[in-house]
Design goal:
alpha+beta; globular; two-stranded antiparallel sheet; 7 strands; 3-stranded mixed β-sheet; 2 domains
Length: about 190
């Protein structure tokens, strides 16, 4: 048996009072709704593990939760997950997360820290099409575009500019604005 703590801790690992006390003592730091020992790094793997503790294993982190995992957005107040429509999963409603059913191919997901997350390309396409965002998505979309490598803008436009894509115009406006901002010369670069 090992004495090593898990890299992401919840109240099943230690009582909340002990975790809170350890946080005050500087032994753990908060990560989302959970805690990490201070010798752990706040990286993609830890954020993915923390987000995944909220939902069953079949759920896939998407939209702002995926952007948070990638380090491109602040933690959302309500995490966003998706499941494939064939998963037939039912969850009780929660104020902490939202789950939607989508068609999500294997090429649209990757594994981060042992948990499934939408790829940066799928994440930016979903964010570009999201009508009721309460944050400025253009910098997030720009960060995701740069993470996708050369030709990312063309691939994203190809996925958004289809007749059956909901909120196509909104997506095209956001993508063009993100590309325009990325191509502007900056004095700080």
């Amino acid at each position: 048996m090992t004495d090593r703590l898990a890299s992401v801790l919840c109240r099943l690992d230690l009582p909340v009072a002990e975790l809170s006390s350890a946080r005050l003592d500087g032994e753990v730091f908060g990560l989302g709704d959970f805690w990490c020992p201070v010798d752990e790094i706040d990286d993609e793997a830890r954020r993915a593990q923390a987000a995944a503790l909220l939902v069953p294993p079949r759920a896939i982190a998407e939209r702002l939760t995926a952007a948070w995992i990638y380090g491109l957005a602040p933690e959302p107040g309500r995490h966003q997950f998706c499941v494939h429509v064939a998963a037939r999963m039912h969850l009780e409603p929660s104020p902490r997360f939202r789950v939607r059913e989508v068609t999500c191919t294997a090429e649209d997901t990757l594994t981060v820290g042992g948990r499934r997350v939408t790829t940066p390309l799928r994440t930016l396409v979903d964010l570009a099409r999201w009508p009721d965002a309460d944050v400025d998505l253009i910098p997030v979309i720009g960060g995701l575009l740069s993470r996708c490598g050369p030709g990312a803008a063309e691939r994203a436009i190809h996925r958004c500019d289809r007749a059956y894509v909901p909120f196509r115009r909104l997506a095209m406006l956001r993508l063009s604005e993100a590309v325009r901002r990325d191509r502007q010369p900056s004095l700080t670069r």
